[in-house]
Amino acid sequence: MGYKEEFISIYREKIHREGSARLLEWLEKTDFFDAPASTKFHCACKGGLVQHSVNVYRVLMEKHFDPETDNEETFALCALLHDICKAQFYKESTRNVKNDETGRWEKVPFYQVEDSFPYGHGEKSVFLIERFLRLKTSEAMAIRWHMGGFDDSVRGGSFALTLAFEKYPLAVKLHLADLESTYLRERGTSAVPHR
User: Fold this and answer.
1) Cβ–Cβ under 8 Å, residues 57 and 3
2) 5, 64, 70, 116: which could join 173 in a potential S-S bond, CB 3.0 to 4.6 Å?
3) Vertex 132: Cα angle to 128 and 134 (nearest 5)
4) How confident is the model at residue 129 (pLDDT cuts 50, 70, 90)?
5) Residues 21-24: contacts with CB within 8 Å, 24+ apart?
């Protein structure tokens, strides 16, 4: 089973909130299942975004799910959709790179950002999800702050981030799952040369 099929299977099995079917239909009309997760850092390849989303779900469930206190629908929703903001966000292009062996310039593919709706990162994901279904406060906080200190809006520190992590353990769990997926499990998953 590929990442797209696994994503859809988890989504349909775990997420039953009103509007979830419409959200999945919308995702299938975007480039979500073909887009990269980044331009050069992790899963910078076709289908990288859905691969990353499934990886975050796996880590979140394996390492942080407590059946006594946590909810499977919430975990699936947060993990699978935390980076929905990256749908329709990247554009394929080419650039010239000198081949060290031949000394010739060659066109190589790469992804560049083309953000037509610059609304931030986590907050954009929350906004897009809530066009289709209602998030619980803890889910919205987790998705909004999943980047932790890497979010551009908190460089230099943020009392809002600190407060969100103190009040909503789900936000910390999603952030940790995102970090582990990105920096440990997806290391070297870029199929696009980074120069």
Assistant:
1) no
2) 64
3) 95
4) very high
5) 22/132, 22/133, 23/81, 23/129, 23/131, 23/132, 23/133
Measure the CA angle with vertex 79, ends 93 and 188; round to 5°. 45
Report how far residue 5's alpha carbon sits from residue 104's, in angstroms, rounded to the nearest whole number: 40
φ and ψ of 178, to 5 deg: -65, -45
26: helix, coil or strand?
helix
Query: Please, are residues 74 and 138 in contact by the beta-carbon 8 Å criterion?
Result: yes
> If you count them, how many residues does the chain have?
195
The residue with greater pLDDT, 113 or 161, is 161
Arithmetic mean of pLDDT, 52-77 = 97
Unique residue bearing structure tokens 């590929």: 2
Q: Is 87 left (phi over 0), alpha (psi -120 to 50) or beta?
A: beta
Task: Find tokens 């979500």 and name the residue.
Answer: 32
Average pLDDT of span 47-56: 92
Retrieve residue 14's tokens.
């775990």
101-116: average pLDDT? 80
Structure token digits, residue 139? 């889910």
pTM of the model: 0.85
Residue 181's Cβ-side half-sphere holds a number of Cα atoms within 13 Å equal to 30
Cβ neighbours for 9, distance < 8 A, ≥ 6 positions apart: 1
